[in-house]
Design goal:
This protein is mainly alpha-helical and about 120 residues long. It has one domain: Orthogonal Bundle (Recoverin, domain 1). About 50% of the residues lie in helices and about 5% in strands. The protein has six helices and four strands; from the N terminus they run H-H-E-H-H-E-E-H-E-H. A two-stranded antiparallel sheet has the order 1-4. Helix 3 packs across helix 5. The N and C termini lie close together (about 10 Å). The relative contact order is 0.17.
Amino acid sequence: MNRRSRGLLATFALLAYAASAQDFPRTPKEYLQRMDTNGDGKVDEAEYVRYMSQGFQRMDVNGDGVIDANDGPMRPGARPIHLDAFQQSLIHQFHKLDTNKDGYLNARELTQPPQ
């Protein structure tokens, strides 16, 4: 894994935490229910990206689609993070989590460690 990928994954983890830290679900089923906006018992790519992007949107204080020094303190040398690049990373992660390749995440897939 290259440096850029590690940085995106670290950012992904931070933003995922920020999206759900207020009231973290206790079970895989609760986690799935938070993302499953249409109530079909599974999470599709759009639901996953929408939910996981909430942390980014909270951190993007000025709403310009970029997390950078204008949004608050950043670690020295950190590059700005653009929403579109972040969401592409989420899509990639979604497909890695979708181990049965059915285009959806069930509770087990959703809560498994990234591969």
